[in-house]
Amino acid sequence: MISVLIFSSFEAELKNITNQYRSIAADSGNDEWSFFSVRTGTEADKAINTAINIDIACIDVTGNGGIVTAELVRKKFRSCAVVLITDESVSPLTYIRPSILASSLLMRPLRQERVCTTLREVYEVYMRDRQDNDDDSFLFENRDGRQIIPYSSIFYFEAREKKIVIGTEFEELNFYGTLDTLEGQLPEDFVRCHRSFIVSVKKISSVKFSSNTIKLANGCMLPLSRTYKNAVREAVI
Length: 237
Prior knowledge:
Elements: E1 2-7, H1 11-28, E2 33-38, H2 41-50, E3 56-60, H3 66-76, E4 81-86, H4 92-95, E5 104-107, H5 112-132, E6 137-142, E7 145-150, E8 154-160, E9 163-168, E10 172-176, H6 179-183, E11 190-194, E12 197-200, E13 204-208, E14 213-216, E15 221-223, H7 229-236
Parallel strand pairs: 1-2, 1-3, 3-4, 4-5
Antiparallel strand pairs: 6-7, 8-9, 8-12, 9-10, 11-12, 13-14, 14-15
C-alpha cells in the first residue's frame, strides 16, 4: 500500500495535488493507495497519528503549522519522501534542515506542468529506493494490505493473541504469524529473549540478568527468560 499525505490550506491547491497523485496511482498499477488530504495542522496531526505509514507527503510550509507537520512526518516516517510547497516569502533556512530532509520543492505560483513532473519524479525515485532497500526492511501483510517497515525502526516482535505485534517507537503494528517462523527470517541483530519476544539488539539500552529484564532505548521493558539468557548475553557483549 502507498499512503500519501497532502497538506495545504488552499482548497483548490489541495484538490489539484490530490488529483495529480490519484492520476499517478492509476498509472502506476502498484499496490493500493490511501490518501490523507488535509487543510489544517490539527487535521494533519490526526492523519499522522492514524496512519500506519506515510510513504509520500506534500506539505505547505508557508504557514498554518506546516514546518511542524513536516518535522513530525520525518521523525515518525523516516523513509517518507517529503515534498514541500513554499513561496518567496519564506526563507529557505526555515525548511532546509536535517529535521525535514525534503525530497523536492514546489514553488508558488504553482505551474501545472511542474507540479505533475515533480510529483511523478518523486514517486518514481521513492519506489526505486524502496525496492533497493527491501533487504533492510520487514515486509508483512495485514488487513491494511502490504506493509513495509525498516528494520531500524523495529524495537521488538511480540507474540500476542495469535498475532505478531511489531513494536516501534511510536506505535504497534500486527499481523498473523508465529515467532518460531519469524525467528529464522530476521537479520542477526534480532535475538529471541523470551518465548513471546524477539528483540532488536540495537534497541537494547541495558540488560539486568539478575532480574531477567531488558530495557529498550524508548524505555520499554521486556522479559528475559533463562532459556535465552546465553543468546542475549552473547548478542550484547
